[in-house]
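Our preliminary data section would be incomplete without showing what the modeling component actually yields. Below, a chain of 330 amino acids is followed by its predicted structure, encoded as tokens that our downstream tools consume directly.
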Amino acid sequence: MLQFHIQADSDIPASKQLFDQIRFAIASRQYSPGHRLPSTRQLAMITGLHRNTISKVYQQLEDDGLVESVAGSGIYVKAQANKSNVHFSSPLLQEFPKASQFIQQSLDHLLEQGLTLSQVRELLISEIDWRLRCSAKILVTIPTIDLGAGQLMVKELEQTLGIPVELVPIENLAKVLAQTNSATVVTSRYFITPAEAIASPYASRVIAVDIYDYAQELSVVKKLPKDSRLGIVSLSRGILSVAEILIHSLRGDDILVVTAHIGDTEKLKTLIRTSQLIISDQASCMTIKRLLTECRDDLIRTPEIICSKNYIGEQSLELLRRELGLGSTK
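Predicted structure:
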């Protein structure tokens, strides 16, 4: 217990002497937050002051927000609110209170690491400026052998994000990045490693996206009757190749699978005439329906058409929106 000294012959009132000593003990952390102060009886014995005088001192400390009284327990040093929680009024703080709290906590953590406010500000501004520069130019990169997949990604990104996107073969990526300050490079997770290796010297970031899982389409394929004729159409030759492998793993030789690139019109017309079910990507769907109308007189029966969802998975699209600073749709 701290030793409090009251000078009886001082011009300073005894109650103020005690108040100042307790306040100093709290301010210097000799009494830390949550510490239980001596009872009025204990302090009366130490200082020789009347318990009513001590009670008034405790009341003043409580009025000043330094201590709090807990019924049936005693007087405790009150935990002080972090002054950094007091900010100028901003609509954003009211709209995103959790984000504001996270920023405050992160700032406190950085300061605890030894950084100054100026250094933290420089780091944050540097990171934000870099992301803004990267977000100003969006590149989709895919190997030349399957630019169709890249075309699908570009179409979906431009439609979903509402911003221009450029398709660059991964073989030409270094040359393109060398001519720009910064960029955001988007690629399939299959090609993330080579894309990162190419982009790293050019102050550009690479974001990998996951493709749509085709669970709904594969479920339909599982239920097709034996000897069914299934047509697969896509802008991407890579997708056609993978689709054949997946379907064969599910059905073996139970069904006949015919694939066609959207640019191969004659093969596409044959597929339409012979298939009972056609599964296509969104980019190919309108072409299939147009050719279906043209070939209608030659059809024994009209095939069912299933247009798949986006090539890029919905979670990846949401991630891209956040990373590009476009906000969330959720």
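The domain at 215-307 is CATH 3.40.50.980 (Rossmann fold). The mean pLDDT is 86. Preliminary results of this kind motivate Aim 1 of the renewal.
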